[in-house]
Structure formats: C-alpha cells, structure tokens
Amino acid sequence: MDVFLHCYNNAFPNTTVYVRDTIKNKWITQGIKISRKKMQLLYNQRKTTFMKNKDLEYIQHYRKIYRGVIKEAKRRENNSYISSAKNKSKAAGK
Q1: pTM of the full predicted structure?
Q2: Which of 8, 10, 30, 73 is the most interior residue, by most CB within 10 Å?
Q3: What are the distances in angstroms from CA 1 to CA 5, 6, 8, 45?
Q4: What is the number of other CB atoms lying within 10 angstroms of the CB of residue 82?
Q5: Is the alpha carbon torsion for 41, 42, 44, 48 positive or negative?
C-alpha cells in the first residue's frame, strides 16, 4: 500500500489552486429586485388565471418599463466602469 501511495503522490502532486472571487452584478439595485418579484407575480397570475385585456395591457406596459430600467442600469454601470478605467479603450472592448 505504501508503494501505491508513493507512486500516486508522485503522479498527482498536491497543487495550490486560487479561486477568483465571483463577479457580482453591481447594476442590480433594490428597486430592480422588487420589480423582478412583481414581474414574476404578474407573469404567474397571467399564466394561471383568465385576465381582462386591461390587465394584460398593464402587464405589457410594466414589462416595457422594467426592461427599460434594466437597460439604463446596465448602461450606467458600463459608463462608470469605462470612465474609471485606466485604459479606456480596453475597458470599452469588454
């Protein structure tokens, strides 16, 4: 058994592995999280119950606003990332 462990340890030596921190989406705000929960609730209601056209139009309008807020938040985060970078050309390429 000792010979096997010796050969195994020589073939597969212990190495140190560095795990990078996870990248967090800084653009997700508390308001976006609340809107996401409301969107999920509205979507589930739409799937499970019969709704009037007025209610469906409200959901479509809310969804349009929600998507616009997300696009704006992403745009702002990208602009701040590029403006704070040392190499702006390289930052803009990401």
Answers
A1: 0.68
A2: 73
A3: 6, 9, 10, 63
A4: 16
A5: positive
